[in-house]
């Protein structure tokens, strides 16, 4: 499916990233977020995303979709064929939000959840149409990082998973479907494992956050931007490949090389330590500057990978080539009426509703 | 210090990478590796490294150092001022090797160990001059990835650490000194944590090795090539920064988001599963092809990061700018006599000794 009209429920760091990706693909987005500063925050994300897409638009960009702010979930979702939920990570809040979405949304609208860890089955337990719901978990910044973990629940329709995959792929994403449900899925489990160990290293005074970050970005982080863990280790096995690597390093699993048997106690002292060291590392840049630097680097890396293999591209670079081409193709197409209207400066009803909020 | 004459003990994947980095910096290297095919294997690494450095040599390259093969550790180290040990990861082998190195090396030669996990203090326990020994742990491919974890032992000299830092920095590396000893240091603890969790995900059938790798290289791997974990999360905290991030995600530490309480049983079944999936993912490329692709991607990513911040460069890219400049500067300099001789095609004694090995 292609997306005609999107609704984003929640406009934080992740929700804002979805709004930006959708709008920059020429899709109109209705937003609901009760936060009094939601629009300002989304605008900041949009600004970053526009800068990044401008650089990526070697072949043009579609006319930006119109972003409107609705006074309620019901208003935001009522005409949508694509609904992305990105509210805070509490199951009760997720359940309440999904109930409100379902009560007003078209019965066949796609509903994806940005949850970092809950299972679709648990979130869908009270839904009337759980067959059109699944987890669609992106990574920050959503408008640039292509990955999307699609995790269907027990009642998600088989055909619907394919429809969802097509929808997310149509906005430049790389979908990996995870068919066995597990808390936190794949990406966040790996991140959580590394994060726990990282906190131990900081807490125990082995290194500072800056030293740890440097070990990543001058070391294995460069590897993981283009090959993951297993492909990298296949090479490390040398001519004998993966079996050799496993035989050589497998036994190390039993060595006490991590503290992960324990969870570091999360107290004020640890928060202070990390926050203070983080200020020393990055305090010279504002968050906005860091976002700009990050985005320019991410686009730069994807462009570098796009030139690989004689211009065919590799990994995220191969996808980047296709995405840039697709954005350019869409630039030539007729845009939606709503976008035309918006361009002409005529405020829409939903835009007017904004004043009611917060 | 700058390095005048290097010895590399062990010519495997890591040792070969050291040899290539040193030789391409114009330094003569004496190698000892009892493996009958050591020279062929090192030559393969040199071939890869030459290809990568050729691309990096925008400003020229120094005349390549001469690589000679010694018949014994004693012969390899006797004239060296820089000795890098990269033998298999067994403490008894390390101790025996270090004893042989010390018996023949100049008393003030730098001795660095490539160990992935042993503490310098444990390795130096029988050394006569432990003050000039430390762990210098690189990541594969050593000739391209800049990171070097320098971990002094209890008896390592304070001034010596600075000397070692200068030596490794002189061949383009980014040194992070870790002053508190811990098995596996920092990088490998993070890798081990992620690796354990990854094996659980494969063993439990949540995803395949290809899917897991894709989630990395289309997702957080792209982030970690340019900012590490803490700087990335600082941004994720949004305008409220690191304290907000910690407060928001800290409690998740206690959730059952990893299986790291347990170590996955390392049996034939798991090795088969991973190796078979790895063949499906990467079997269409030989290890040599994968190495070429990886190296081109790594150089491409570093070049992209080198253009960041209006050409000043960011992270590994900033270092890349300096390294390319430095290689070019060295290209103008007079090269060592040994290198001249080698260039003239006159075989050296050590080269002749090669036939005795294996």
From TrEMBL, chains A, B:
Biased composition (Basic residues): 344-358
UniProt key word Oxidoreductase: yes
Domain 3-hydroxyacyl-CoA dehydrogenase NAD binding: 6-180
InterPro entries per record: 3-OHacyl-CoA_DH_NAD-bd, 3HC_DH_C, 6-PGluconate_DH-like_C_sf, 6PGD_dom2, L-carnitine_dehydrogenase, NAD(P)-bd_dom_sf
Region described as Disordered: 335-358
Lineage of the species this protein comes from: Bacteria, Pseudomonadati, Pseudomonadota, Alphaproteobacteria, Hyphomicrobiales
Protein's cellular compartments: Cytoplasm
Organism from which the protein derives: Aquibium pacificus
Protein name: L-carnitine dehydrogenase
């Amino acid at each position: 499916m292609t997306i005609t009209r999107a609704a984003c429920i929640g406009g934080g760091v992740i929700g804002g990233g979805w709004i930006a990706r959708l709008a920059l693909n020429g899709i109109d987005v209705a937003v609901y977020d009760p936060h009094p500063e939601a629009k300002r925050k989304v605008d900041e994300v949009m600004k970053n995303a526009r800068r990044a897409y401008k650089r990526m638009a070697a072949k043009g960009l579609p006319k930006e979709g119109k972003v409107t702010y609705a006074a309620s979930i019901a208003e935001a979702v009522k005409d949508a064929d694509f609904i992305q939920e990105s509210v805070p990570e509490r199951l009760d809040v997720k359940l309440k939000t999904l109930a409100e979405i379902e009560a007003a949304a078209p019965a066949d609208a796609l509903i994806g959840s940005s949850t970092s860890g809950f299972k679709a089955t648990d979130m869908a337990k009270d839904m009337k149409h759980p067959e059109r719901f699944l987890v669609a978990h992106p990574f920050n910044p959503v408008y640039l990082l292509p990955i999307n973990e699609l995790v269907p629940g027990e009642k998600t329709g088989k055909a619907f998973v394919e429809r969802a995959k097509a929808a997310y792929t149509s906005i430049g994403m790389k979908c990996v479907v995870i068919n066995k449900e597990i808390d936190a899925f794949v990406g966040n489990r790996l991140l959580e494992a590394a994060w726990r160990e990282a906190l131990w290293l900081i807490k125990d005074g082995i290194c500072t956050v800056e030293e740890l970050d440097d070990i990543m970005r001058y070391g294995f982080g460069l590897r993981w931007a283009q090959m993951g863990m297993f492909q990298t280790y296949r090479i490390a096995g040398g001519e004998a490949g993966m079996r050799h690597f496993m035989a050589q390093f497998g036994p190390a699993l039993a060595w006490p090389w991590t503290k992960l048997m324990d969870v570091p106690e999360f107290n004020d002292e640890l928060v202070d330590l990390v926050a203070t060291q983080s200020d020393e590392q990055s305090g010279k840049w504002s968050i906005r500057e860091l976002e700009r630097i990050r985005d320019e680097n991410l686009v730069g890396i994807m462009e570098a990978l796009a030139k690989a293999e004689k211009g065919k591209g590799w990994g995220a670079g191969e996808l980047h080539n296709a995405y840039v081409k697709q954005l350019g193709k869409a630039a030539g197409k007729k845009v939606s009426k709503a976008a035309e209207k918006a361009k002409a400066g005529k405020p829409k009803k939903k835009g007017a509703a904004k004043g009611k909020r917060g």
